[in-house]
Amino acid sequence: MIRDQIHAAVAAATVAAQAAGALPAFDIPTFTIERPRQPDMGDYAASLAMQLARIARMAPPKIAEAIARHVPPSDHYTVEVAAGYVNFRLTQAHLNQQIGDVLVQNEKWGDIDLGGGAPAQVEHGSANPTGYATIGTGRNVVVGDTLANTLVAAGYVVHREWYINDRGAQIARFGASLYTHYCAVFGVDVPLPPKGYPGDDVVTVAQEIAAREGDRLLKLPQDEACRFLGSAGVEIMMAHIRSSLTRLGVQYDNFFSENSLHISGLADRMLNELRARNVIREHDGAIWFSEDGSPIRAGQGVKRDDYAEDEDAGVSEEDAGPKAVQAVMLRSPRISPNPADRPTYFFSDVPYLWNKLVDRGFKLAVYVWGEDHQADVPRLYAAARALSLNADAVKILIYRFITIMRSGVEVRMGKRAGNAIWIDDVVDEVGKDAVRFTLLSRSIDTKIIFDLDLLKEQSDKNPVYYVQYGHARIASIFRNAQETLGAEPLAAGFAAHTCDLQHESEMALARKLLELPEIVALVAATLQPHHYTTYAYALCSTFSRFYDDCRILKQPDAVLFSRLRLAKAAQLTLARVLRLMGMETPEKM
């Protein structure tokens, strides 16, 4: 990328300025090359002189001038100094050349080699299979799928995985809920368990099992029937979830069973490994992980019953300290008499982490978790440290939940309340691409307002429509060109000419197109896919200005084909961004 070339040039120029005596001797600190907010300041800027002022004991403008004087001449950019910044402006020749390169790279345009072929995993979705896929899960899977697309573009070999929570208290409660609904099919009244699932989706699954199995489960002991129903229900729910995810354009390489970690013995081996490393403690009948081996401090703001449920299975990071995390792995038999219910989520998280980094050798393991799992983050990193795993390979993203609006009123939803909003229903109402774009439109640590009415609007107020219309608009230009010129003359003229950008709007569009590899690098580095929606919208706005300012058809051949090549590069760029977001690239709208 040209940004990397400029970074190297600034570093080399600083060393040259030192050798010439224009700057004193010092070690060059880490610095970045940024894009100025104001276009008149150039395309790139180095603020290194600001960082060096105290080290060099010189004013930033003098340092910047010394560095600029030693930047070697280049056909790609010119160098300016302004207020202590070394600014770089891309040349017209560079822009012309790069548009040609975009057309050559075609669908590979925007790819970068950040990962170097390293294996990476993105684990996302992973909602409890106790109901259909909700629009809340939608944010998880759309973020995860887009990040997986990005890491592929960034040079990683990516594995996409859904972790099935198919054991523990939640599944036991799910099985008991299914038993209630199953019995109702045959006129038997069994009360729903505490915190059970009353939703229509669970009722439908129970009815499906009843149709398949008949009333034979009524003759079994209730515990045995509930276990069967829990297992069968998970299988049916996961089939429905897979179908919903496919409709949303999300595919997986694997659905990993939590239960397999226990059946294989890996969970027990990890517990023994932690015990051998002296980070396991017993307290009040429960088995705890204590990162620094210190006694358990339960009671410091944590009630005895707080570790009766998975989501509360531990001490807060504030209580334990960032370097001394403590968390329950196995509940006390007094709290969970059934041995199968004793393991917490954390007890499974540890072997799953080992499985990812050691058994399968992923060099990057990305987790996408909802905000209700914030407390689990320090526990997982602490487990990685305790097992001498590479904690830097683990990236845990916490996303905020969404708010659904209809007719200006918030729509409440919840699985246990029986009023969840399913992905299928939202896709039916507004379409896959509107769902994906909206769920990517804000930073993951920001709440999203999902306005169903706005997303159905076919106007510029709807950002999804605006961006996809931008692609369709460019496609229409080429249809018109083919009708005007004929297919063969169009192809011949397109191949025979190069870009010769003259108008400021042409060059502004070219500059915007050339940001794509940097956007891919930014998303891959920050794991924040909202940068795509921002870029796509800005790209369409820039193209609109170009289209308004620069007529394409009925121009001399040199101008006509130069602008057609620029328009094709814009179409390729916008199409690539849309595909990275998992969206369609419509030719007509």
List keywords for this structure.
22 helices, four-stranded antiparallel β-sheet, alpha/beta, Gyrase A, domain 2, single chain, Isoleucyl-tRNA Synthetase, Domain 1, five-stranded parallel β-sheet, 589 residues, 15 strands
Helix content: 40-55%
Question: CATH-wise, what's the superfamily of the domain at 463-580?
Answer: Isoleucyl-tRNA Synthetase, Domain 1
The secondary structure category is: alpha/beta
Radius of gyration based on Cα positions? 29 Å
| pLDDT averaged residue by residue | 91
Largest sheet: 5 strands, parallel
Strand content bin: 5-15%
Number of strands: 15
The poorly predicted ranges are: 300-322
The quaternary state of the protein chains shown equals single chain
Under the CATH scheme, the architecture of the domain at 463-580 is: Orthogonal Bundle
Question: What is the count of helical runs?
Answer: 22
Do you know the CATH topology of the domain at 463-580?
Isoleucyl-tRNA Synthetase, Domain 1
CATH class of the domain at 463-580: Mainly Alpha
Give me the side-by-side strand order of the main sheet: 7-6-5-11-12
